Amino acid sequence: MKHLLSAKDLSHDEVVMVLDTAEAMAATQRQAVKKLPTLRGKTVVNLFFEDSTRTRLSFEAAAKRLSADVINFSAKGSSLSKGESLKDTAQTLQAMGADAVVVRHSASGAAHLLAHAGWIDAPVLNAGDGTHQHPTQSLLDAMTLRRWYDPTSPGGADGSPAPRGRDLAGARVIIVGDVLHSRVARSNVDMLAALGAEVTLVAPPTLLPVGMENWPCAVSYDLDASIAELRPDAVMMLRVQRERMSAAGGGFFPSPAEYARAYGLDLARRRAMPDHAIVMHPGPMNRGLEITAEAADDPRSRIIEQVGNGVSVRMAALYLLLADEGNQL
């Protein structure tokens, strides 16, 4: 595989390989000298058409810790704001000698177009395209869950690196919220199901996409019933994407207070979860809407750990796609 565009593109064994490599990368980050010479002389371009904090900084940190040179390209203030096409931008990057392009775009399919249109001869890593896919987010979520899910112990693991080859067979994961607009939800359903997890999506009917019959997951409209019946190992809250709702005309739920009451994770719902269950969120969080401050900062919250694991996963992806000794995807 030359590119990383979708969670669906990775087989079970490839996912496990990426996660095992990410654990090895995480181990290097605990050393006194965090930088590796693996990608010295390579140039990674972060091509971001949408605003981002965690994803862009995470990819930048990952590339720099592998000793690659990084060019951050933002649509704002560039020729794109003057009407330059994606094709012309890609050909400019090709002429500059980009060795890999990390792209984030508001249009679903933009990363696939960039990878396969013949405009650029370099690996493309999808950092989020519209409401379609966000594969490295699902990889870092899987890494986080794999560290805390221990099928041999009902009390859960301690967050130490997962044994090599570990998958998530039997893990019960509830993903809650704005599934309709969420590339994170789509990617996680594909990724976690490939690892053997049992995924349940919980949302109001208005925030579920049409045509979910073939998704490898269950669907519920009742968060409290799902927590009580499934006894999940993890509950992942999704950001309510109000900017996409406003563009579509709104009207997806009666009011923020109503949404929070029915689908928000508060301390009471956190306490209803099994003691070992972890809380996850891809960020940024709307505190007080899909999650309260008490639940976000609960001792079982792994939200900050997800951010750290993101650097390790993106180091692994860049290494496996770019390094001569690591090019195995």
Keywords:
alpha/beta; Rossmann fold; 2 domains; 13% strand; 12 helices; single chain; 329 residues
Summarize the SSE layout with pairings:
Layout: H1 12-28, E1 43-48, H2 54-65, E2 69-74, H3 86-95, E3 100-105, H4 110-116, E4 124-129, H5 135-148, E5 172-176, H6 183-194, E6 198-202, E7 218-220, H7 223-230, E8 234-237, H8 242-247, H9 256-263, H10 267-272, E9 278-280, H11 293-296, H12 303-322
Parallel strand pairs: 1-2, 1-3, 3-4, 5-6, 5-8, 6-7, 8-9
Provide an overview of this structure:
There is one protein chain. The chain has helices at 12-28, 54-65, 86-95, 110-116, 135-148, 183-194, 223-230, 242-247, 256-263, 267-272, 293-296, 303-322; strands at 43-48, 69-74, 100-105, 124-129, 172-176, 198-202, 218-220, 234-237, 278-280. By secondary structure, the protein is of the alpha/beta class. The chain folds into 2 domains: 7-133 and 308-322, Rossmann fold; 135-303, Aspartate/ornithine carbamoyltransferase (Rossmann fold). The chain has a 5-stranded parallel sheet, with helices on both faces. The protein has a 4-stranded parallel sheet with strand order 2-1-3-4, sandwiched between helices. Helix 1 (12-28) packs across helix 5, helix 1 packs across helix 12 (303-322) and helix 2 (54-65) packs across helix 12. The protein is globular, with a radius of gyration of 19 Å. The model has no long low-confidence stretch (mean pLDDT 92). One of its GO terms (biological process) is 'de novo' pyrimidine nucleobase biosynthetic process. Pathway: Pyrimidine metabolism; UMP biosynthesis via de novo pathway; (S)-dihydroorotate from bicarbonate: step 2/3. Carbamoyl phosphate binds at residues 54-55, 104, 134, 137, 283-284.
